[in-house]
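Lab channel / #folding
Pinned by the channel admin:
"Please post every new chain as: sequence first, then the structure tokens as a reply. Keep commentary short and put observations after the output so the thread stays searchable."

First post following the new format, from NK:
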Amino acid sequence: MFKKTIKFLGLRISLILLVVILMALAIVLGLMLGYGGLGGKNPGDIFRPSIWHDFFSKLSSKS
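Reply from TO:
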């Protein structure tokens, strides 16, 4: 009984971990596709902090 429980929990934890990794990968690829493909810029630039600073400053501006 104990071995079945451990095996079941291990399977559930590995499935949750797989889903989290796939979601993170989808977010990163979506950001790169949106910035590079649709925006016409270098997709690798999405990881620069200055891009995010500009983005959040435009969101928080009161214009």
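NK: Helices lie at 2-38, 49-60.
TO: also worth noting, The chain has a mean pLDDT of 92.
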